[in-house]
């Protein structure tokens, strides 16, 4: 079956997606503080967890 599309209007021109606005300086500072805090916890938390496990092991003796 043949369908004639010659009388159809052309599609709209392609537009790139809109970019999200950049972070404000205050938001950048807050994000950096959160990331820094998480990095510090990444280093300290396993040490603290191992210490608590050691304390629990001594209590069970």
Automatic annotation (TrEMBL):
Residues 1-25 are annotated as: Disordered. The chain crosses the membrane at residues 31-60. Keywords: Membrane, Transmembrane, Transmembrane helix. This is Uncharacterized protein. It comes from Sphingomonas endophytica.
């Amino acid at each position: 079956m043949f369908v004639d599309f010659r009388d159809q209007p052309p599609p709209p021109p392609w537009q790139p997606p809109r970019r999200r606005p950049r972070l404000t300086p205050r938001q950048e500072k807050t994000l950096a503080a959160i990331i820094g805090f998480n990095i510090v916890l990444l280093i300290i938390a396993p040490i603290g967890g191992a210490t608590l496990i050691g304390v629990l092991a001594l209590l069970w003796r």
